[in-house]
Amino acid sequence: GGYGIARITAILPTTPQTTLLPLIALALWGSIMANIICLRQTDLKSLIAYSSGGHMALVILALLTKTPWGLTGAMIMMIAHGLTSSMTFCLANTAYERSNTRTLIIATGMQLTLPLLATWWLLANLANMALPPSINIIGELSIMSTLFYWSPTTIIPLAINTLLTATYSLYMLIATQRGKPNTTMYMYPAHTREHLLLALHMMPLVLLIINPILITGP
Question: Where does the NADH:quinone oxidoreductase/Mrp antiporter transmembrane domain lie (predicted)?
Answer without folding.
Answer: 1-165
